[in-house]
């Protein structure tokens, strides 16, 4: 996904955040269901990605399709995507699938404590992919388009006994609606999302000198207060920073290193 589609996805992900603290698996399942409807209707996809149509017109089309059939939250998310611009007809379905999987990840995250829910979800998804990779017979059975969906999903669930409800939602989706990929390929994409969410719980700290116990305690308290959650600190020494620290949490970088300040000074002098 690139260009205008990437921008639309980023905006949709930002809007989705307000739903995540109280996300439910039913919301994710509704969004996956909408993906299925879009995948089955080439005409609908083309209409929703037609650059000559107004965003409000496309949003109204989605609202007419799903009003009363899904929750208000799912309808709002879907109409928001429809009102955006997309480079390719498939992109809107890909974006909605990603948002649905993000909701599942958030449900696991909210179970906690800390990142434990995400860790368990990641483990279940890895177990599924390893089990499938270990058997050519299972691979053929899960990818057989002639086999009933219910039979394929039942087989998939037996591969991961004791898996959590979040993992089962993603596994069922990957097996029932792989969208042109192998089920393990879909699960690998879901794993990337889970890993990205896990990184929000880790602070990668690089400093020119080793942190003292007091410095680490103060840093822990400051980061926990800033992000509203108890982060795990991974600290390493990087003499190239000269002084200060560089902290990375997810996609955010907090940089007070001398190297960073010198780079900023050089940039200003070059203007």
From TrEMBL:
InterPro entries: ATPase_OSCP/dsu. GO terms for molecular function: proton-transporting ATP synthase activity, rotational mechanism. The keyword Ion transport applies. Keywords: ATP synthesis, Cell membrane, CF(1), Hydrogen ion transport, Ion transport, Membrane, Transport. Pfam families: OSCP. It is a peripheral membrane protein. Its main location: membrane. It is found in: Cell membrane; Membrane. This protein is part of the stalk that links CF(0) to CF(1). It either transmits conformational changes from CF(0) to CF(1) or is implicated in proton conduction. Belongs to the ATPase delta chain family. This is ATP synthase subunit delta. The lineage of its organism: Bacteria, Bacillati, Actinomycetota, Actinomycetes, Micrococcales.
